[in-house]
Structure formats: structure tokens, C-alpha cells
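A favour between colleagues. Tell me how you read the following sequence-structure pair.

===
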Amino acid sequence: MELGSICPYTQECIRFVNTGCDGIHHQGCPDKPVKDKEVNILENKTILITGMTGSFGTAFSKYILSKKPQKIICFSRDWLKQKNLRDEMGDPSNVRWFIGDIRDKDRLIRAMKDVDYVVHAAAIKDLSSCEYNPSECMLTNVIGTQNVIDACIERRVKKSILISTDKCVSPINAYGTSKAMAEKLWIQGNKYAASESMAFSVCRYGNVIGSAGSVLPVWKKLIENGAKELPVTDERCTRFWFPMQDAIDLVLDSLENMKGGEIYIPHIPSIRIIDLATAFGLPYKVVGIRPGEKLHEELDQGYSSDKNEFLTVEQIRETINMA
């Protein structure tokens, strides 16, 4: 049975497929539990976000400010990005700013005092950087992740979510390999904790539209600088296409429902890179695939972006305008 075909509420594959459930909000599922009112699991809770100054961490932290958390703790190593984010957020009184590296376990343990939930988004994510510096990739993405796990257990954090990537499935590069190992360590954290009061789960998804280093901001900058054509690695290339708000909703939904050991994978549409170029209204030139880059990514075995539903050029244009 292919991944994405099983309803998380009924375990009945046919109904899940026929209703078109997106795997996040479960819209259209006739068996989705109806709540009297929306449960705000973040109210009066303390949440620590590693890598909070990154694309996801920034969007996630801004969004959950409205959820009345007792405290949000930013844990990242770039003091300038922290300052900029603090200014953007208006320096809220319930946000704390920890300068620290996930390679430093003692600093993590200090930062996690009285923390209820951890969202681990910190990682070296650039494919080329990881290929050229695999040892640094390992120290941050693998050893750093183990440090986060150990600190969560030391401070008895109730729920901990790892933000993962489609590149960890059948990896052919250092980044994907490091995230595959990070996932293994994270899920194993449930056994290390040996406690029903603590849980570790994973959220795995594909390209977030407009995130730092992704194709969208790169191409926009090229166009701003007067580019008349766009670089395409290969005309056959496809990618999953995931809005930032959906990534936020996935993490919040996972935090609410997780028991420990789950790998949450949403149903995500795909785009063809040449269709993205068409949506920008410019011709493209083929520049060749970079070392370690795939033509098609996978979210799990048998669930790859070349077999998924594809957005039309007009739908892609709409996502560009929203990003």
C-alpha cells in the first residue's frame, strides 16, 4: 500500500483517497473527530525552537505568538539574525533569546529548563555546503540532533518534533544522509527516554515555497538583477511544492496528536521546474544537475514527486504571488 493512502483516523485507504484528504487538516474525511472548539495546545506552554531564525522557525514563531504561549525560546547561533527577528517581532515580553549551537549539549540543557515542547528545526540545509563540508554537516545535523535528544530527556520535555526533509529518503548526498540518520536517532529517543510522559516524533516534507536558499527567492533575485533567462538543472526535474502555512499547520497538528514514534508525512503536490520557469514568463537554460542532486525527490518509498499530482502553470503563479 502506498504511503498517503491510509486515513489516520479510520485506517481505511479507499475513503482516504476518494475524499482527497491532504493529510494535514483531513478536510473531507467523514470520520474526522468533530471538536466542540479548537484546542489550543500552546496556551500557557513554553516552546523552544532550535534554528528559530531560519525560514520555518521565523514563520512558526511569529504564528504561534497569537496562541498565548507562556514563553517562546529562540535557540540559534547567529546573533545578528536574532536581533533582526527580535526587531521584526517587536521584542515581545514572552520571547527569550538564547545564543547557542546545538553542538553544545550543556547550553541546550540550560535553555530547556521548564520547556514543554521542542521543535528542532536547526540544521545545515544547503546541499552544496554539506557536500563540500560533510564533517561539519555530520557535527550539526547528526551529533547536534543527538544533543537535542539528550537535552530533551534531561529536562523531561513532554513533546519534541524534528523537522525533516524529503531528501532523507534514499539519500544520495551528505545532507540527505545526515537527515536520515537524524530521523533514526530522533525516533529512537522514545526508547532512550523510556517514559510515557515524553514523546519524540518527526515531520517530514518537501520544498517549502519561498524558504531561504530555495529556487523561488533565487530566481526572484536573478530577475531583480536583470536576468533574461532562468537556470534549470534538468528539464525532467520535479519538486514537491509546500506552502509555509501548511508546514506550520502540520507541525501544530502533529504536536497535538503525537504519541511518540510517528513520522508525519503530508500529501504534497509537485511542480515541474520548467513549468515554474514558464510561470515566471521567462525562457530557461539547462545548466546541469549539481553533485548529489536528484531529478525527483521522495517522501517515502514509492511516493516520489514524478508520480504525484502536478500543479498547473496558473496554480504555480498563484503560489508565487502568495509567497
